[in-house]
Amino acid sequence: MELFLLRHGIAVERGTPGFKDDFTRPLTPKGRRQLRKIATAMKKMDLDFDLILSSPFLRAKQTAEIIAAGLKLKKHLKFSNALAVGGDPAVLFRQLERLKPSPEKLLLVGHEPYLSQLISLLTTGGLQLHLVLKKGGLCKLDVDKLHAGKCASLEWLLAPGQIKLMR
Questions:
Q1: What is the pLDDT of residues 44-76, one digit of tens each?
Q2: pTM for this structure?
Q3: Exposed (0-12), middle (13-18) or buried (19+): which is 112, by Cβ within 10 Å?
Q4: Which of 23, 41, 59, 61 has the greatest number of beta carbons closer than 10 A?
Q5: Rounded to an integer, what distance in angstroms lies between the CA atom of residue 109 and that of residue 4?
Q6: What percent of the chain has pLDDT over 70?
Q7: Cα separation of 143 and 155, whole Å?
């Protein structure tokens, strides 16, 4: 399986007046522009997904929608609380296990530190790999058989600035 992880784009800062909680913080106009450029770059990279699974938090949802629209994959977009802030990777793995047919190319859209911890878990079996996925950053893992432990190799990790250069 080819597993891609994308962190949401630039969002309204936590505590900004008018946004009552973390769940409702949207992307900023700059974040939306950034993600449209990233979607264009992803299209040029010939990235295609059987499933785009996103956190339901507004900024991640908007990120996934922009990418899905840019890649013409709106029908492949779904949401999971297992990818939300404080989500549980074990729940995510069970959800993915139940998918029939199992996706060969999967994009997960979510938050930090969850995504970096997930990358560490899948590549090392623990949390010893310390990395930060920047807002709009994209990672590709090659997974033998997805499970909660060492089952993947890191193919590449791109910062948003690198992705935008590919357009």
A1: 999 999 999 999 999 999 999 999 999 999 999
A2: 0.96
A3: middle
A4: 59
A5: 9
A6: 99
A7: 10
